[in-house]
Fold this sequence. Notes:
Strands 2-1-3-4-5 form a five-stranded parallel sheet, sandwiched between helices. α2 links the parallel β3 and β4 (140-148). The chain has helices at 82-86, 118-132, 156-166, 179-182, 194-207, and strands at 71-75, 93-96, 108-115, 140-148, 172-175. The chain is built from five helices and five strands, in the order βαββαβαβαα.
Amino acid sequence: MPDSTAPHTAEPRPPVNPWLLTPHHPAQERPGPQPPQRDVRQLPGTVAPPAEMLPWHPQPPPDPQDWRQRLWWMGVHGGAGTSTLAGLFPGSVDAGRAWPNPAPPQRAAVVLVARTNSAGLLWASRAAAQWAAGWVPPSTTLLGLVWVADTPKRAKELESRRRVISGALPRTWEVPWVEPWRLGHTVRFDDLPAAVRRMAADIAGLAHVPAPGSPGS
């Protein structure tokens, strides 16, 4: 008989990925035959509740334009600034609040966009977790996320959260407050803040599209 007085040693728990929206707990699974393993990106609802995920665009019909030459700006919440950023890149697309979903073998280059307010941080973290968990269209390439300032002065109490979320994404850029944009005015690209021009050059190189202000744009 086992010695009931022997000290109990807890088995080490496997590490939990904090960016998975629904952590995996094998001990809570019901016994019985398991279904064949499938890519979670093909199983809507298996990674996180729908309320915590951004949807996919319905797969579009064949397009004569090459999806690989299309840059998509995806807002993680309403009013993020996708239409303004799309206006910088002729031919780029405002995806709204849904992941582009081209039919393979085509691919879509995606840049997430979020304001630096509390709602923007919340939805940016959800989008980052959704991407980290693999619940995005398999033909999507996430380039990174653009933080768009929501006020002329940065809110210090939100900055630490923004840095943590940024660390979960491939790369991030910051767009400072641009007063003419708030008023609905058009601003010449050369007159935009240097941070915006650097961001545009970086993203153009990653997406293999002409940079704003270049002869091919």
